[in-house]
Amino acid sequence: MAQPQQQEIIKTTVRLHPAYETDNPWGGETIDVELTNGPADMISTKLESVANLWYFQFKRGTSNTVYQYFGVIDFDFKRILARPNRVPTKKELLEDEDIKKIIELLEQKYPAFTVYFSGRKGIHVYVYAPEMFVYPPPDFAEDRGRLNWLHSFLNTTYGNEIYDMLDASIYHIGKGIRPYSMPHPKTGIRPFTIYQKGPYDCIWTYIIEGKLWDTTQLFVPEINSFIQKKIIDRTKKSGISEVIKVNTLSESSTDMNRIVLDYLNLQPGKIAGNGICLVKSNGKCKNLFKVQNTTYCPIKRGCHSRIGKSYVYIYSNHATFMCFSDTCGVASEYTLKKYLPPLTNLTDLSTELFDRGEISQRHFESITIPPDQKYVSVEDIE
Ligand SMILES: [Zn+2]
Questions:
Q1: Residue predicted with more confidence, 65 or 81
Q2: How far is CA 53 from the centre of its chain?
Q3: Cβ(279)–Cβ(290) under 8 Å?
């Protein structure tokens, strides 16, 4: 006799209401709710009534892989759209320039989505699309790797314009989004629909009825678009101290590519039979190269067990390495500088400058050397 087929258990993580009204609204207990244990509308209603915060993170059976649904987007604007005694109308909200822009972009991309006013200064958007249910490759499953994966998916899926406006922090483990049944904690205003496209009105019913986990896909981040994004992030967060190691090479060559290769060739980790080489990246950065045929990582100051995550930016007088492995992470970099001999004798400087003939005496006199600069070289003055 055939055994009855056992149904796979799918769970999602949610956060409950806090124990007391006066507690931090996000301070409730975190629990897993089974999605495969009853009719979709019953489970949806339960999720809406018990959960203070939704994560949209899923687990199946006993697997450790965490799946994620990215069809939920949060946009916060700088200005406050509602106050306790002043609820904006649907019409007013739809006339808001930022909201109009977001709806326009979503209209071009998706056949079904709902836009809610969040209750104070932003909107929540629910996109109904099975391709939003994804999981990371094992390399990107944890910590910084997972964060990079998550940002890469959002950027690739929604495009730069939407990505730049949205609050990406709601997808991080331990974060989440307030469901549409919950009033805003500061204004007491419950989210309300301001725009709808397509037949759906409950994201949970959509996920559970559609069994989106059956068609879930692996998402592998694109390393090039990824690096572009990292550069933008890095310029945004000025003030965050990054670990930057600088090493000056005693090197007569003027070719920075050559200096980088010579440096790598002095290190362990070379792959037998293949010369170390720098392969130009396909992205927008003209000076970005992938390091190939070595497992040596300048950030780690040692070898990785696997190859392929070191990149280098080549400039005229220096080169900066970055490593995208989980253990190193993009917050650290390693810089090689071309050796420029320190000038300790002013006669040398003036002789060399006058020999060149192209720098005028007036120019020469007007130069100020900042106190933090240890040496002056001819290149600095040019
Ligand atoms: Zn590394």
A1: 65
A2: 22
A3: yes
Place of tokens 């070719």: 255
- The closest alpha carbon to 278, from 298, 299, 302, 294, belongs to 294
Instruction: Copy the structure tokens of residue 21.
Output: 């009204």
- Please check whether residue 181 is in contact with residue 48, taking contact to mean a CB–CB distance below 8 angstroms: yes
Residue range 294-298: average pLDDT?
90
Q: Domain ranges in the chain?
A: 10-221, 240-337, 346-381
The H or E element containing residue 42 is: helix 40-50
Question: Counting beta carbons within 10 angstroms of the beta carbon of residue 219, is it exposed (0 to 12), middle (13 to 18) or buried (19 or more)?
Answer: buried
pLDDT in tens, 327-376: 887 777 888 887 666 555 565 556 555 555 444 443 344 445 555 555 55
* 3-class secondary-structure state, position 130: helix
Tell me how far the alpha carbon of residue 197 lies from the centroid of ligand 1, in angstroms: 46
SS3 per residue for 202-217? CHHHHHHHHCHHHHCE
Task: Find the 304 Cα to ligand 1 centroid distance in Å.
Answer: 7
Please give the torsion angle defined by the CA atoms of residues 35, 40, 41 and 47, in that order, rounded to the nearest 10 degrees: 10
Residues with CB under 5 A from ligand 1 (ion): 297, 299-300, 323, 325, 328
Place of tokens 């392969």: 279
159-211 pLDDT, tens digit each: 888 988 888 888 887 788 888 888 887 788 889 999 999 999 899 999 999 99
Distance from residue 253's CA to the centre of ligand 1 (Å): 26
